Hints:
about 70% helix; rod-shaped
Amino acid sequence: MSTEGLIMMLVTEIFVTIITVYFFLKILKTPSKQEPDSFSENDAE
């Protein structure tokens, strides 16, 4: 493998890893939405 090929492979793998970690952490830090309770909507008031 040539030096240029090795550098390109490493840069690509590092870039993909950084993007993956970024979006994974973004998903973990996003607060969950409050879903309505379907049983409370059916209660007789």
